[in-house]
Amino acid sequence: MDKKFLTIILVLISSITTCFSQKIDIYVAGGENGESVVWKNGEIIYLSDIYVNPNAVNSLYVSNGNVYVAGAKNGQAVLWKNGEVIYLTTNSIDALANSVYVSEGDVYVAGTVDSRAVVWKNGEIIYLTFGSQLAGAASANSVFVSDGIVYVAGYEINLERMYVAVVWVIGETTSRTYVPHDFYDTIALSVFVSDSDIYLAGFEGSGAGWNQAMLWKNNEAIYLTNGLTESAASSVYVAGNDVYVSGFECDADRNLVAKVWKNGENVPLANSSINTMANSVYVVGNDLYVAITEQTPPVSTAYYLKNDEKIFLSNNGSANSIFVVAGGTDIPQIKTDFQLKLIQRKGEIELQPDAGSFESGWVYVYSTQGKTIYTKPVERSASIIIPTSGFPGGAYIIRLTDERTKKSWSRKVIM
Q1: Running DSSP on this structure, what letter comes out for residue 115?
Q2: What is the rounded distance in angstroms from the CA atom of residue 194 to the CA atom of residue 175?
Q3: Out of 9, 227, 246, 315, which could bridge 281 as a Cys pair, Cβ 3.0 to 4.6 Å?
Q4: 166 lies in a domain?
Q5: pLDDT at residue number 330
Q6: What's the farthest any 2 CA atoms get from each other in the chain?
Q7: Is 259 within the bounds of a domain?
């Protein structure tokens, strides 16, 4: 036998059980004791003196393990990446980054620079407006990327000094579309794009002197409340055919009450009380996540909801933006429902189930962080080959499942 090839034959006969479950990490950006923070699964992971706009509900994004937060420091727009402050401006009179989105490795940030709406791509600024204070002033409040097209939501102040909600679309050229407006101010705070449909969440003024929560779909206005009391929509998220919007609506005593609307209908929130605002909404599968701030002067409590479960974050803070990372798999223990030989060679791993113990199913390879590296359907065979020449050296989990019997086998290997 060539000694350059290491062959390990393992005969597994034990019967240790385990289960695989989807790994969920919940990130929330907000504030605590006057500082900006990021919580991961309820624990603070980053703390800074930068300013994060409490109305910037899309200020947090997580991609490939990197945590991005949009904000400001010393009057300059900044991007906060894994706790490190990156300045987007250095000599502006007043600049603020409101929203961040990551697509195919490119980092997009929406904000304002000296009363002009802007978006940065990998630190390079793109001006969306060229006005100044009062008439012509504008703000880019939210950014979303779909199929390489960049969508930015915000507002402009027109010559009549009305606030008008607008969405900029940046592709080969840049276009802008204003929402329908007659006599009242409109502001868009959040944008989401699904199947080429553009959704904006925000609010519209009224003749009664207060604002009304709004959703716009492809420029069609959808009123979320009856307009009898103050309300506003802060964030929009689309999951399949369902459209979720977070915000608040005042009750008859003018107390703020956190709200989530699903397809225009109010969704009762567990643990919701007066003086609460639902600032950001996120959906994974059948689970609804909502970032909430509860204001009971002189303190402000931050928490988030996962369906009916309330997860406390701070008794002196705010929860502004929520982002959920799903798709990893918790690392399994050894599982051997049937006997199998594993032969590890240079560039491949061979699995040999005992005759009659396996019919058909799937083979998986996971990293120790729970990421799926390789998957393939397999039929009854004397051997199953997994090519490994492209795998970096390290530890991996091999798993084989039988589709009919639901039995499985798993093993940790070193490559």
Answers
A1: T
A2: 19
A3: 246
A4: yes
A5: 47
A6: 87
A7: yes
Terminus-to-terminus CA distance in the chain, angstroms? 20
14 with 136, same domain: the answer is no
Averaged over 142-170, what is the pLDDT?
95
Is the predicted pLDDT of residue 207 greater than 50, yes or no?
yes
Domain boundary (328, 343, 363) is at 328
**Residue 267's beta-bridge partner residues?**
260
Mean pLDDT score across all residues of the chain: 86
Report the C-alpha gap between 262 and 224 in whole angstroms: 10
Q: Are 239 and 259 in contact (CB under 8 A)?
A: no
- In percent, the amount of the chain with pLDDT more than 70 equals 88
How far apart are the C-alpha atoms of 236 and 124, rounded to whole Å? Answer: 27
- Counting Cβ atoms within 10 Å, is residue 251 exposed (0-12), middle (13-18) or buried (19+)? exposed
- Judge if 248 and 137 occupy the same domain: yes
What contacts 65, CB < 8 A, 6 or more positions away?
Answer: none
Residue 179 has pLDDT above 90, yes or no: yes
Q: Are 137 and 180 in contact (CB under 8 A)?
A: no
Using a cut of 0.90, tell me whether the model's pTM lies above it. no
19 pLDDT exceeds 50?
no
